[in-house]
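Example 3.2
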Amino acid sequence: MKKNLIVLAAIGTFAGMAQAQSTVTIYGLLDANIGIFKTNVVVGNTVQNLSQRAVQTDGLSGSRWGFRVSEDLGNGLAAVANLESGMAMDTGASAQGGVLFGRRANVGLAGGFGTVTIGRNTSSYEDVSSEGSAMGHSVIFDPSQTNNGPSTAVAGSALTAGSAATLLSHGSKTWIGYQTRFNNSIKYISPNIAGFTGSLTYAVGEDKSNPVVSANASKSISVFLKYVNGPLLVSGGHQSEAPGGTLAVAGAGVTNAANGSARPALQNTLINVAYDFGMLKIAGGLNRAKFKDVSAPAQLNGGSVGGAFAAQKEVTLSVAVPVGAAMLSAGYAQSKGDTLGKSAGVGVQALYALSKRTTLYAGGLNVKAYDKLAAAVVVGLPGSSIGRTTTYAAGIRHTF
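Structure, written as C-alpha cells:
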C-alpha cells in the first residue's frame, strides 16, 4: 500500500512538472448583431441596391475559437502552436470557406531571436493594418476595414454584374483591401528592440502545373515595421499577394501562376500614425493599392482592352474618446484612382463595456462606392440601380 502511494506521488510530481512546462489555452470570441444593411446585389444581369433587416455575425470582430499551445524547451526556447477556427454566429456555419482551422493553423519556435511559425498564418501586413484606425478596425463600422479584398482575377475580368457587385460592395467599405491569411507560409516576428518590432511572411503558391521554364509558381510576401514609444505608434507595412493558392479563400484551388515577365499581384503599401492623449486618441493611415500586371476591363479603360489598372491612393483619419465605461469613435476613409474613381465613407460607433469580457455596441456606416466604376456599370449593364451602401446595427461581443 505504501509503495502504491509512493508511485502515485511520483506520478503526480512528474505530471505537475509536465504541466508547468507546457500550457494549452482554449479561447474564443463571439460577436453577433442586428441591423439594417443596404448594399449592391446581383439581379440577373444587373446590379441593384437592396435594403434588408438582418441578424448578422461579426459586428466588431470575427467570431472564433481556438487553441494556443506553448511548451518550455529550456534555455529560453519554446515550441508554440496555434489552431483557430472562425464561425458565423447567425447560422453556426464555419467561416473562411468552411475550412476547419481557417483563421490559423501553425506551429513553430519562439525565443530570444523572435518567433517563427509554419503553416497557415495571418499576414504581417494584417498585423498592422488596424493601427491607422482609432475605431479598432471594427468589421462593419470602420470605413477603412477591408480585409479579404477582391482578387486580381475579379479585378481583371470583364465587367459583369458579379464582378462589378464584388468591387462595388466589398464589405461596404472604401479601400481596395487585401488578403489577411496565407496558406503554405512561414512567418517571422522579431523581438522588441528599443521599441522597434518587425515581421516577414512568405507564402509559396504550390500551383506550378507546367514544366515550362517561363511558368513560375505564384508567391506572396508581407512585411511590417513598427515603433512604439509610450502613447506614440508609427507602423508601416507592404504586401504583394499572388492570385494563386497562397491566398486565403479567393485564391484557394486557383491556378494562376506567373508566366514570363507578367506576375499578377495585388500590392498594398501602408503607413500608420497614432497618438493616445489619454482623453483622446487620434489615428491616421495612408495606403497605396495597386493591381500589378492586371489589365483593367475595357469599360474602365476608355473601351480599350489591355490597359493597366491605375493605383488607388487611400487615406483614413479617425478619433476615439473614452467616456467612463463607454468608448465613442468616428472615422473617415477615402480611396481614389484614375481607373475605379473615388470611394469615400464615414463611420461612427459606440462601445459600452459591461465587463472586461462583454461589450455592447451600436453604430453606423455610409459609403459612396467608386464613382467611375459605378458609372460604367450603369452604362454597361442597363437597368442597374446603384446607390450608397449603408449599415446601422447594434450587437454584443463576448470573449473567453
